[in-house]
Write a structure and sequence with these properties.
By secondary structure, the chain is of the alpha/beta class. Helices cover 30% and strands 19% of the residues. The chain binds iron/sulfur cluster (2 copies).
Length: 452
């Protein structure tokens, strides 16, 4: 099986090859200092908003639960710092609207060790007990989707999962946090994989890694050997050709197995569950320690950053603090959360790092001008966007319909719902038409009309 997908050459149809710009790929993960205050937004994922279980003025220790939920599609939150709760109420978020948040002032002299968690023995735990333990950690997909991990690993009653697919592609330019986690935390990753297999009932695991990260393959192979016997089944890592958007579930399954997930279906329809390397490595650390998620690895990079790198950042750290430490100029022209293809440009630095933030990219004005993306022009019907769309859509027509606000027609006749906002069409468009941005607006309008 090993290298079959690699030898297949073309991993999936269409897609693009943007410059990787992964300038932090060989830098070791470093820890960011603790900020004076953290702001934990309670709404960081789908599902009901968790409710605070602390009050203003209360002392909290790092790792202590601060927000609880009984909704299966939601997760609890834990104090990222030892300190005192200073405020509970609305604060700005990267998504735009102000959201209910808990602000904690860190004690300057505190050790900031995790003082709450109790090591737990899960060696005899069954699948549902492991899922409950994952829920207790407050884990969501650290690849950027921020979907609650226990829900993602829950197999529907009628379904059967045989394979856990681990996504180590990190195909977005600039981002290297998953790469560094694979190299430096490979043992934790294998531990997390074993929990994931027991939670889902999978009998084998395949870690898909793009071939621009051969050191990650070496590290994971060594960790699998160190782990010795794997009673749950076989775990192995495999290279796939580097190509964007390989990190999407559909593309990765196609690259590894040569099979297509049917439109409107999830990988579980083919007996697979896909999870990200960062998420599983974090579970490998947190579950045996009985701790909650209080920090994550974030790539802080871009031409506007003097000290780029992959940093361990406490959840809730203000972006302004992060960028000051990394040496980004105050007049940064554009800051993007996530990668340049699927990330989100933000208007204010007064928002916190949340569980789903994998990267912070900083561009100066001259960087944007050199990329000639400041002006847009009419569609010249060149067809480049159609050639690039991995879902086989017609972004040109969708873009024309979006300009006329024909949103229903986009959904009903041109499969807008199949667009997963990879940004390939926008990337190749010589007219600089912000296609994917238009599609996001169209989808949002359709969602709101459906809910009305
Ligand atoms: S239409 Fe959607 S799926 Fe297709 S290239 Fe554009 S953003 Fe990607
Ligand atoms: S790439 Fe841009 S200019 Fe070319 S057909 Fe698509 S939308 Fe039109």
């Amino acid at each position: 099986m090993k290298f079959i997908s690699y030898l297949r050459g073309e991993a999936f149809q269409r897609g693009v090859h943007p410059p990787s710009s992964k300038m932090t790929a060989q830098m070791k993960i470093r820890r960011l200092p603790f900020p004076p205050k953290v702001t934990v937004p309670l709404s960081q994922h789908i599902g009901k908003v968790p409710r605070p279980v602390v009050r203003v003025g209360q002392e909290v220790v790092r790792g202590q639960p601060i927000a609880h939920t009984e909704d299966w599609l939601s997760v609890p939150h834990h104090a990222p710092v030892t300190g005192v709760v200073e405020f509970i109420g609305l604060r700005p978020s990267a998504r735009g609207p102000w959201v209910e948040s808990i602000v904690i002032r860190a004690y300057p002299g505190a050790t900031q060790e995790d003082l709450w968690g109790q090591p737990r023995d899960l060696s005899t735990a069954n699948g549902s007990e492991i899922l409950q333990a994952i829920w207790d950690t407050g884990m969501v997909g650290l690849g950027g989707a921020a979907f609650p991990t226990h829900a993602k690993l829950t197999v529907p009653k009628q379904a059967h999962v045989h394979t856990l697919v681990v996504n180590g592609c990190e195909c977005e330019p600039y981002l290297t946090c998953d790469h560094r986690v694979m190299v430096e935390q490979a043992d934790d990753l294998v531990t997390g994989i074993r929990y994931g297999m027991r939670a889902t009932g999978a009998v084998r695991t395949i870690v898909g890694i793009e071939d621009n990260k051969p050191d990650a393959l070496v590290a994971i192979d060594a960790a699998i050997k160190r782990a010795g016997v794997v009673p749950e089944g076989e775990i192995h890592a495999e290279l796939v050709p580097t190509k964007y958007p390989q990190g999407s579930e559909k593309m990765l399954v196609m690259a590894l197995f040569g099979v297509e997930i049917p439109a409107g279906s999830l990988p579980v329809a083919l007996g697979m569950v896909v999870n990200n390397v960062g998420t599983l490595a974090a579970l490998g650390q947190l579950l045996p320690a009985g701790r909650g998620l209080t920090e994550r690895v974030v790539t802080i990079t871009g031409p506007g950053v003097a000290r780029p790198g992959d940093y361990i950042v406490p959840i809730g750290t203000p972006l302004r603090f992060v960028l000051d430490y990394a040496g980004a100029p105050a007049e940064s022209h554009q800051v993007i959360l996530g990668g340049p293809m699927m990330g989100q440009a933000i208007a204010s630095l007064d928002v916190p790092v949340t569980k789903g933030v994998s990267g912070v990219l900083v561009f100066r004005k001259e960087d944007m001008e050199s990329r000639e993306v400041l002006n847009t022009y009419p569609c010249i019907k060149c067809g480049e966007c159609v050639e690039s769309c991995p879902m086989g859509l017609n972004p040109s027509t969708l873009g024309l319909l979006a300009a006329k606000r024909e949103y229903e027609m986009m959904g009903d006749n041109f499969h807008l719902g199949e667009c997963f906002e990879c940004g390939c069409c926008t990337y190749v468009c010589p007219s600089n038409i912000p296609l994917v941005q238009q599609f996001r607006v169209a989808k949002q309008v359709l969602r709101e009309r459906a809910a009305a």
